[in-house]
Amino acid sequence: MAEDFNCPNCGGQLSRKMAHSKMVACPYCESTVLLEDDVLKLAGRGGVMADEPSLFVLGRSVEYDGETYMPIGQARFSYANGWWDEFWALDGKGEGVWISVDEGDIAIEENHETDLQIDERKLKVGARISFEDELFRVTEADRGKCEALRGEFPEAMSVGDTYTYYHLSGPRGRLITLEFEDGEMYVTEGKWIDPYEIRQQAVEANA
User: Fold this and answer.
1) Is 101 exposed, middle or buried (0-12, 13-18, 19+ CB in 10 A)?
2) E-only strand ranges, the chain
3) What separation in angstroms does the CA of 197 have from each of 52, 141, 157, 189?
4) Alpha-carbon distance 70 to 59, whole Å?
5) Per-residue pLDDT reduced to its tens digit, 114-166
6) % of the chain beyond a pLDDT of 90
């Protein structure tokens, strides 16, 4: 069931669809609001996000490979080749996944816990990297900047945040994304998917 709060900046009603959300972007005043022990704190601005045609829309679920995904958060990032969107979505079990959309390229990934430490200096495009006993090739290395936010997320994010990221492609279509920010490494795991296999559903989020 959704929990309702009021934005501490404008008083607008905020609806939280996921119990462990850490941040909500106010749809009325574009403020970002942190949720800490049910106490709301202003975190910054959500920025302006121009709507672009997409298979993924907040509040409308999609189906892929027998699983349903409901996007509830959208972050837009700029990088050297333009921009891409990261959607935070809930699957049919209420678990969260990241869906990245960069023009025709779409990937679904989950947060991946690992004790492995990788020397960022070795992450050059074309380099082969051993990750948890499997061999991967670095296929992309770039730097992204958060430009706008809407909806809700499992972690605090801010417009203007920048980080370095690397895509590692492995066997059986496995995809590993490494992100480095302030000396910390964050890992997500998933796969690239065929956009023609995604089916949209006109279903509103009622979590």
Assistant:
1) buried
2) 3-6, 13-16, 23-25, 31-36, 39-45, 62-64, 67-79, 82-90, 96-102, 105-111, 128-131, 134-153, 162-169, 174-181, 184-193, 199-200
3) 20, 27, 30, 20
4) 6
5) 888 888 999 999 999 998 889 999 999 999 999 999 989 988 888 999 989 99
6) 41
Task: Enumerate the domain spans of the chain.
Answer: 3-45
Count how many residues are written for the chain. Answer: 207
**pLDDT tens figures, 89-124:** 999 888 899 999 998 889 999 999 988 888 899 999
End-to-end CA, the chain? 5
What are the structure tokens assigned to 90, written together?
């809930």
The residue with tokens 């670095």 is 138
Calculate the alpha carbon distances from 131 to 7, 177, 189, 191, 199 in Å.
43, 11, 11, 15, 33
Q: How far, rounded to the nearest angstrom, does the alpha carbon of residue 19 sit from its chain's CA centroid? A: 17
3-class secondary structure, 61: coil
- Asked if residue 73 lies in contact with residue 153, where contact means CB atoms within 8 angstroms, the answer is yes
Q: What CATH number is given for 3-45 in this structure?
A: 2.20.28
Single-letter code of the amino acid located at 166:
Y
